[in-house]
Amino acid sequence: ASAGAAPLPRGGSAMAAGRSPPTFLLLGAAGGGKSLLVRRLRHIRAPGRPRGSGHGRTQPAPVPQVGTNLTDLRLPRRVTVRELGGCMGPIWPSYYSECSALLFVVDASNPTQVSSSCIQLLSVLSAAPLASVPVLVLFNKIDLPCYMSLVEMKSLFRMQDIVSCATQPITMLETSARDGTGLADVLQWLRTALKDPS
Questions:
Q1: In this structure, what DSSP letter does residue 103 have?
Q2: Which of 21, 139, 183, 185 is deepest in the core (most CB within 10 A)?
Q3: What is the mean pLDDT of residues 124-143?
Q4: Could you give the CA distance from residue 11 to residue 16 in angstroms, rounded to a whole number?
Q5: Does 124 score more than 50 pLDDT?
Q6: What is the DSSP letter of 28?
Q7: How far is the C-alpha of 70 from the C-alpha of 5, rounded, in Å?
Q8: Are 146 and 130 in contact (CB under 8 A)?
Q9: 69 is in an annotated binding site
Q10: pLDDT-derived band of residue 19, with 50, 70 and 90 as boundaries?
Q11: Burial of 196 from C-beta contacts in 10 A (0-12 / 13-18 / 19+)
Q12: Higher pLDDT pick, 148 / 65
């Protein structure tokens, strides 16, 4: 309702800037690749691990995240990524007040999940505590042969309408958590989000 006239602290939480490290929320439907994504981001940041190392090839089968998972990243400033399982959708809002930036993962290889993901995203964007946080929408799993392109996903999600109605700055990227495609861009976005551009 309020179109962000006053400069609200990002994520509505003054704590994010002070004592504890900023918290980035990682949300999305079950099976979108959130857990693997955050693991890969951590390995990219680990010293001495080249980005192109083929860790993704022999990844164990992903286990759906049930509950919440905390991961620290250094960008170089420390941030905490809180991953919430897709089945936890009804209680996602209880974590919104501590959020400094939001990553929303969509499985670009799963057309049947598009409508439910779109509804979830709209619900997240309309939440008052998130009215001014930067949002990154990740169309993941582009390594799979059946994935939909960014143009197709934008069209199915009606991203133009979503972006024009949203109060948040929204960025979209294509990624593959499995082979690492796009993850350097994700890290760059996270660093930019940390700088709190007004």
A1: E
A2: 139
A3: 96
A4: 8
A5: yes
A6: E
A7: 32
A8: no
A9: no
A10: low
A11: middle
A12: 148
The DSSP bridge pattern shows strands 78-84 and 68-74 to be antiparallel
pLDDT digits (tens, 9 = 90+) for 21-65: 899 999 999 999 999 999 999 988 544 444 443 444 444 444 454
Q: Is 142 annotated as a binding residue?
A: yes
- Please enumerate in sequence order all residues whose Cβ is within 8 A of that of 157, keeping only pairs 6 or more positions apart, or say none: 106, 114, 117, 118, 121, 137
Helix axes 34-45, 183-194, angle to 10 degrees: 80
Give the span between the Cα atoms of 167 and 87, in whole angstroms.
26
Spatial distance between the Cα atoms of 165 and 45, rounded to a whole number of angstroms: 35
* Residues pairing with 171 in the sheet: 136
| Residue 173 β-bridge partners | 138
Taking a C-beta distance cutoff of 8 angstroms, is the pair 24, 80 a contact?
Answer: yes
Per DSSP, helices labelled H in 133-181 are 150-157, 159-165
Residue 80 bridge partners (DSSP) = 23, 72
Structure tokens at 33: 């690749």
Report phi then psi at 138, rounded to 5: -110, 120
User: What is the rounded distance in angstroms from the CA atom of residue 75 to the CA atom of residue 98?
Assistant: 19
> Which CATH number describes the domain made up of 23-45+66-194?
3.40.50.300
pTM comes to 0.80
Is 141 assigned to a binding site?
A: yes
Tell me the sheet residues that pair with 138: 105, 173
Cα 101 to Cα 139: distance, rounded to the nearest angstrom: 17
Mean per-residue pLDDT for 106-119?
A: 90
